[in-house]
Structure formats: structure tokens, C-alpha cells
User: Fold Oxidoreductase FAD/NAD(P)-binding domain protein from Leptospirillum ferrodiazotrophum.
Amino acid sequence: MENSDLPIRLIRQETVAQKTLAATFELPGLPYAFAPGQAAVLSLSEGGAPGEGRTLSLASAPAELPLVTFATRTASGSRFKEAISRARPGDEFFLSPPFGEFLLPSGEELVFPLIFLAGGIGITPFRSMLRECGRTLAEKSSGPPVLLTLNRTAEETPYREECRQWNELGVARWVAVETRSAKSGGTPRDELVRRALEEILEGTGMEARLYLAGPPAMVDSLSEILTAAFGFPRERLTVDLFFGYA
Ligand SMILES: Cc1cc2nc3c(=O)[nH]c(=O)nc-3n(C[C@H](O)[C@H](O)[C@H](O)COP(=O)(O)OP(=O)(O)OC[C@H]3O[C@@H](n4cnc5c(N)ncnc54)[C@H](O)[C@@H]3O)c2cc1C
Assistant:
């Protein structure tokens, strides 16, 4: 049991894609600070103490504190995912201190174009960044960040409506790759990704700073395409691996 874990209360749950749940919690009136892109361990309350937990990226912005939101795929049906799906407003959970180095560039680095590649549920750290920064990222770097979301279908794309709004408001330029949609016409996933990346990199150039988040298999195949097919320099890639997903 972690003494530093805070007891938090569930406020609401929302379905943000097929088998994908967002849960919002309220923190007690204690100080809690995190940077967009960081994660924390969310634990079930077992006998009033932190029980089984999972590392989840904070999907809300620091500006939304004392509320914090996490979003997670529930398809595995694990005990943890079942518990969070069945929880009711007011139920107690525990929240660890935040951690992680998946952070936006600061200062001079911010002048380079930004590309965010979200594999499936890997949208969560980017949602925090985009909600926190709004249009300031577009104004400080050279234009709005490009957000590429990679999912099988539109229905499986988390926060799809919010992505559409970011695109409309100039917060981010959104490129959706939905590999099993009718539009993709049976083209293999890697080819769809390669075409999307080609178009993005033509616009930003190889100077871009590229952020990649999601399940390890997705992140690995995306970074492989980037480095092997485009010669994108590894040192400009920052990755957030959601270990625990196949
Ligand atoms: C930095 C980071 C950020 C992440 N962000 C997100 C996110 O925003 N959204 C999201 O959905 N997922 C995120 N994950 C992955 C998340 O931690 C889970 O691994 C994933 O959601 C699968 O959980 P599961 O319960 O469905 O799978 P399971 O197969 O039940 O378990 C997955 C992992 O949890 C471990 N585990 C199993 N049982 C226990 C237990 N009793 N106590 C502790 N660990 C156990 C397993 O060893 C396995 O590694 C992130 C992971 C990391 C490392």
C-alpha cells in the first residue's frame, strides 16, 4: 500500500468509443500537480485502502483539477476493468502521485512542428496536452500539431468527436486512419499508415518533433514505419508505451 495515494471519488463515466470508458473523479482538497502527458496508478479501494491498480495516463488537463479523467479499453474484462465499469458515482478509488517523462517540448524546441501519433487508446496523453494548451500550441510552434489517430473503425476511435472539434477550431490538424472502415477499401494497415505519414511529413518536414503513444505493438510498428520507410531520426521520436496491452 502506498501512503502517498489519495482517496478520490468517482463523479461520472462516459462511453468514448466502443468498449472504451472514460471515468472522471474528484480529488479531495489536497494539492496535486501533474504535467500533460504524465500517468498515475488508479487503484480500486479494497477495505478502504488501495488495492489492485493499473497505470493510466491522465486524459484530462491540469487546468481541470480537482477533476481528473482516465480513459480505458474495457474489452479484456479483467477484474480491474469490470470494477471500473460497474462503479457508481461516489465510489472510492485511489490515485498515486503522477509520473512519467512523456512531456511536451518547452522553450526553443517548441518552434518545430509537432506530430502526435495516437495508437488506439494512446490518445489519452495527447488529450491532456491539447485540452491544456488549446490553440497556444498552434501559435507557439509552427502551426497546429498534427494528430494522427490509428484505430480499426470510427466506432473504436476514442474521443472522435473531440478530435473533430480540435480540427475545426485549429487546435490540432486531425488525420484519422481507420483500417477496417469502408473508406480504407481493404488496403493493409501498414500501407494506410505509410500513406498518411507521407502526407503529414511532406507538410511538416523532417524537423518535426514526433510523439507516439499507445499499446507497445502499435507503437513499435509505427516507429518501424517512420524510421525504416522515411528515415525519420529516432532522436526526434518520443514514445509512451502502454505496457500491459498486447
Ligand atoms: C505509462 C502507461 C500509460 C498507460 N495509459 C493507459 C491509458 O491511458 N489507458 C489504458 O487503457 N491503458 C493504459 N495503460 C495500460 C494499462 O496499465 C493496462 O495495462 C491496460 O489497460 C490493460 O489492462 P487490463 O486490466 O485490461 O489487462 P490485464 O491483462 O488484466 O492486465 C494488464 C497488465 O496488468 C498487470 N496486472 C494484472 N493483474 C494485476 C494486479 N492484480 N495488480 C497489478 N497489475 C496487474 C499484468 O501483469 C499486465 O501487465 C498504460 C500503461 C502505461 C505503462
Notes: The radius of gyration is 18 Å. The helical segments are 79-86, 123-133, 136-140, 160-169, 189-204, 216-230.
